[in-house]
């Protein structure tokens, strides 16, 4: 997203999963990239003529395609890649990040999920972040540190969380400081919901808007999963801090405003694209949620045309795009 115009991420639609176009040998497709961290070696499930990581990646890609209602060849025609990054593995369980990239320089948008997987009866069962299956697999595994595992599983369980207009979330810069809201509520590209705002200026530091577990999706894109049924995304970051599940506090430094497009899309003018996600819809696998009527950083956001709208605070006033906004915290 430009500081004043569009770019990267996107919403996961809140509808039942569509069926994808059938594809075979997904892990071997030219537009599938598999990375396995050294902490995730010795995966189970090596098949006849297929490496264990390919068997897992095939299951992850299959779930991603089902959720998006697409086929791997369709994504290839759109110049989109699927990345499967296996971050952790323990026994018959695995954890990582799945990304569908956007064409670099385009007004399209990438998608990303954490995933948890369990090897059962000779096959991998995969849950994408935001589904009950993700929470269930993660909670019952030996993956991650116990406190992190339990917190993330509970915070992303659509059967156990409820969201509200008062989010308990601040803004992506230090409490008690100003940055410029260069883009009012907008979607990822031009679509709904209008879940995101752009900020620039100030000291240019990007900080966690609430405490939680922080995951680097790629170098320049961080997701912080909070303890209240929400998470926040921060895209286009430079001077980046890699965070593989760190428990961070409010105000933790994530990077600086930049133009990174590590998963594709475009950006013009250094800024942070700040987006709100929620986990209370069991069909949406961690959906981006409209800012309209929600309060963050002490300001209640109102959408208009994409990148327009405004935010207001009773007794203080109204901030329109191009105006400086003070972070009051929660």
TrEMBL record:
<feature type="domain" description="M23ase beta-sheet core">
    <location>
        <begin position="219"/>
        <end position="280"/>
    </location>
</feature>
<keyword id="KW-0732">Signal</keyword>
<dbReference type="Pfam" id="PF01551">
    <property type="entry name" value="Peptidase_M23"/>
</dbReference>
<dbReference type="InterPro" id="IPR016047">
    <property type="entry name" value="M23ase_b-sheet_dom"/>
</dbReference>
<dbReference type="InterPro" id="IPR011055">
    <property type="entry name" value="Dup_hybrid_motif"/>
</dbReference>
<protein>
    <submittedName>
        <fullName>Peptidase M23</fullName>
    </submittedName>
</protein>
<feature type="signal peptide">
    <location>
        <begin position="1"/>
        <end position="18"/>
    </location>
</feature>
